[in-house]
Amino acid sequence: MNARKAPVRIMAHLVAGYPTTYLARAAARGLAEGGVSYFEVQFPFSDPSADGKAIQTACSEVLTRGYRVSEGFAFAAELHATYPDIPVFIMTYGNLAYKIGVEEFASRAARAGASGLIVPDFPFDTDEGLDAACRRYGLVSVPVAAPSMTAERIAELATLGRPYVYAALRAGITGTTTTIDDGTIAFIRSISLFPELDRTMVLGGFGIRNSEQARCLAPHVHAIVAGSVFVDLIRENATLGEDAVRKAVAAKAAELSALDSFA
Question: Which residues contact 160 (CB under 8 A, 6 or more apart)?
């Protein structure tokens, strides 16, 4: 007999302001309707190190309009106010946070109602004071773990006892579909070998696009991060209007999050 299990937690990645403020709002509404558990709001950046074509293109289009960091904070604040039960994590790159000032960036994120910051190119042990600033303002700093990390380095990360760790499921850039295989699961399990990380919520992402991947990954992580798949749907439906964008991303979010157990 098939048993229904709890919906899978999805952290949905949005590029702030993409492709317009109105359509970004429609996408957020669709994601909320589709049952996502977290918003990851990326502030557009001109030279991303990990983003694939879909997100790079989205960022470029938004920046071409003269989009400002203040608008990104305003969007994060709007999401927090509109969907108070869905935590907002702001994702950016180190140059942007450093230019503003890490302390100021954390302060503004807290005022916007964000729950945490993800800055993938700030290593956890040389983060320009990001974690300390987050702690001062009641935020969490989410470090990134990658399959290329040694066991020793993962153990060092574990000693920090961070509330969340973002597990990048493969090397390279986002967008390309990731195969969830034995190596992927072994990497995630390697994080869990350390007692400190048993209390850490692992966010697993990079190239998650369909329910088959989600079904394989869900038992091993706290939440699945999906980004390019939503950015693609937003782009494909943008000319059809807000309702089309909302419905498209809501359907995909529901597909990824509402899984059946076949036990």
Answer: 124, 131, 143, 196
Q: Which of 47, 51, 125, 243 is catalytic?
A: 51
61 labelled catalytic: no
pTM: 0.89
Q: Are 54 and 19 in contact (CB under 8 A)?
A: no
Residue 156 falls in the annotated catalytic set? no
What Å distances lie between residue 51 and 172, 189, 205, CA to CA?
Answer: 9, 25, 12
Distance CA 156, CA 158 (A): 5
| Helices 182-192 and 151-158, axial angle in degrees (round to 10) | 40
- Judged by DSSP in three states, 200 sits in coil
Extended beta strands in 50-195, E state: 88-91, 116-118, 140-141, 144-145, 164-168
Q: What are phi and psi of 256, to 5 degrees?
A: -75, -35
pLDDT digits 0-9 by tens, 138-182: 999 999 998 888 888 988 888 888 899 999 885 544 445 567 788
Spot the catalytic one: 40, 127, 131, 232. 40
What does DSSP say about strands 223-226 and 201-205: parallel, antiparallel, or unpaired? parallel
Instruction: Give the amino acid at 32.
Output: A
The H or E element spanning position 261 is: strand 260-261
